[in-house]
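Notes from the 1:1 (GR / supervisor)

We went over the backlog. Supervisor wanted to see one worked example end to end before approving the batch request, so GR pasted a single chain during the call. The sequence is below; no edits were made to it. Supervisor asked that the structure be written out right there so they could see what the output format looks like.
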Amino acid sequence: MIDEAKLADYLYVCSHLSERAKEGLRAYGWNQYDPEKFATWRWSTAKYGYILLGSDGLPLCLGGVSITRFVGHAWLLTTDRFDSINFRQTRALLFAVKKVIVALLDGQVVFRMEATVVNGDERNARFAEALGFEREGIMRKAGANGEDLHLYSIIGG
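Structure output shown during the call:
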């Protein structure tokens, strides 16, 4: 089930991040990761947040869009349970995220959506491409620890 994310969801997800999500956060400079601090910051900066709940009602992942100067920055945080999601849940997540992206682009809230993926993270690269993002290129040594980041975008019509 997809729902609008609340602060409690952010706190849960940030306290149960997958290793892949933690690695991504380190690439963006969150080396001294404090789940409560990060959850509160992410919640306060996200304009559109959504949560995917498992059959037990607990969050599997949290995503959203932050907006700066008519550019949307899409992000996704996965819990340690995210790898167990099934095809139906993956489809529901893709549908919900696409709906947010289309609404923002069609409503001209943003003219461009961006997503960055840490080099070597093929799963997130495939997810971005399934959403309709196109790879623009590599931002060499753009990660906080010198990682290469891949830049993806969708341009509004």
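Supervisor's comment: The chain is about 35% helix and 30% strand.
Batch request approved.
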